[in-house]
Every structure is written in C-alpha cells, then in structure tokens.
Amino acid sequence: MSYERHYSVHKTLTKDVIHKKVSGVCGGIAKHYELPRLGVRIAAIVALFSFPVVTGVAYIVAAMLLPTRK
Questions:
Q1: What is the pTM of this model?
Q2: Which residues form the Phage shock protein PspC N-terminal domain (predicted)?
C-alpha cells in the first residue's frame, strides 16, 4: 500500500514582477495562495504598523530570498 501523494501542479512561491508595487512580495503571496492582492497589501501594512521590526525584517528577507517569476 502506498501513501505517497502525487500532485500534478507544483506551485512555488515567487515574486510577482507584473503586479509589483515595491518588490513583488505581496503580489507573489497573493498569487500563490489565490488571495486578492489588495487584501494582502493591506494586511502587510497593518502588520507593519503593529509589528514594525518583525514585519520589516521579514519583508526584506522575503524580497532577497524569493525567486522572480519568469
């Protein structure tokens, strides 16, 4: 009996360079999880005001590490 799952679609989290405002991180997250881009951007801004250091560092690290969609 095999319990391995096989998926036909391999989605990877990438930056969205088409719909980017700053670096494309929020657009890429919205595209990956199929959420509205505006909602993700508003959530990022709220998080930035609530937890400025953590959110700022996380955004910068994500901007550096996430690959760009080709």
A1: 0.77
A2: 11-68
